[in-house]
Each structure stands twice: as structure tokens, then as C-alpha cells.
Write the C-alpha cells for this entry.
Amino acid sequence: MTDQAQRPADEIPGKPTAAARTTLSHIMTGNDTNLLGTVHGGVIMKLVDDAAGAVAGRHSGGPAVTASMDEMVFLEPVRVGDLVHVRAQVNWTGRSSMEVGVRVMAERWNESTPAQQVGSAYLVFAAVDADGKPRTVPPVIPETEQDKRRYQEAQIRRTHRLARRRAIKELRERRAAEGIED
């Protein structure tokens, strides 16, 4: 059963996927490069986290903090002068957590060629109150068939994250019970 299924019906009304969707655009400069002369992956990751954080805060109606980043994939190098567009949306919500999907596109700033996808990531955010404690978020309402697919895929990723966390915890407990120190 998902967190959303456990949510009482009289809680916060849902929000459509498009309500929090955003795009952050940035021109890459020489300050963003790594030793190979391409844009440093950490620069892209920061843009991804910034866009995802804006979407999570917008969807939840307040502060949200990054809990995890899954599957950050770099498909193509980004170069100085590229105009990078980071597109983010909430794919799934639990009681206080949200999965945000992010697609990174890049295009040459001085050319009329279409932008190409250069990366993607999934981040989990937790909505927090002023004391840093979890707070309830509105359910996300997928609008399109693509949104519905993303919602279903997000549920699968959540199941895998929880199973992985449980398996690692059990392994560590077994090793500790056997007297094996790490």
C-alpha cells in the first residue's frame, strides 16, 4: 500500500502535475568547467537540485529538503556556451515525501539547433515545517498519460529504494550479530 493510499480523504486536496512544473535555464561559462574542458557534473547536479527543490517547495506549499538523489545520468557532455534547461516536475507523493523527476536539456546559445537531452535524475524531497519536522504534502494528480506513467514508475523506484534500505539494514544487523565490525 502506498503512502498516498493511507492518507485520509479529508486531508490536503491534490494538485495537478502542472501546478509545480518548472524550467530553470542557465548559460554555462568557463567557471563551470572541469579538467576536461566540459561542464563539471557537480554544476549540473546543483542545477538539478535547485530546479527540483523549487518544484518540491511549490508543490508542498513550503520548505522541502533533498532526501536523496537517484539515478543521476549524464548522457552527453555539456560545453561552455551551452544554454542548459533543467525541467522538473513532481512525479509521485507520499505522506510527506515527493519524487521529483528532472530532465536536463542543452543547446548551443548561438545556434538554432534543437536542444538535446544531456541528463536526467530522480530526487526525493521531504516537506518540513519550521522545526525541520516532516509535514504532509498534497497528493499529486497525474494529468496526462505520460504523467500517469511517471507516477507508476516512481512507485516502482520507491519500492526498490525501501527494499534496498531494508536489505542493507538486515545485512548490517546480521554482521553485527556475528561480531563482524565494519
The first strand starts at residue 15 and ends at 16. Strands lie at 15-16, 22-27, 64-74, 82-93, 97-108, 116-127, 140-141.
